[in-house]
Amino acid sequence: IRAQILQVLVDLRDKHHMALLFITHDLPLAWLIADRIAVLYLGRLVEIGTADQITFNPRHPYTVALRNATPQIRGDADRSKLPALQGEVPSAARVPKGCRFHPRCPLAFDRCKEEEPPALEVGPQHMSACWLTK
Asked: Which of 3, 66, 104, 108 lies 20 to 30 Å (CA to CA) from residue 11?
């Protein structure tokens, strides 16, 4: 039934040439129905780009973690072996200073704890808010 509902939404979007805001943590599903994907963490935009850029070349550590947490379609897939982010999700009422993702980011360094990174262009129509973005 999920696929049927999504198909109705996509058909309506295409028929009426309208935007569709679809909220999910399922990147492969977003890739199937979206032209562009915006990734938020604790209410802040951390990465935005085309569906292909976000799915196949994510540049923010949170987007990478989302992608890596997606099970692969293989006969030997074992969901218990999917990588998980360490630590607890901070409270949205008390967001951490600096980058909101730094308490759980495996790449965080001192600057991440002090300054919120700006969104920088990492490719055509592709932006990432990470101090490691180049």
From this structure: 66
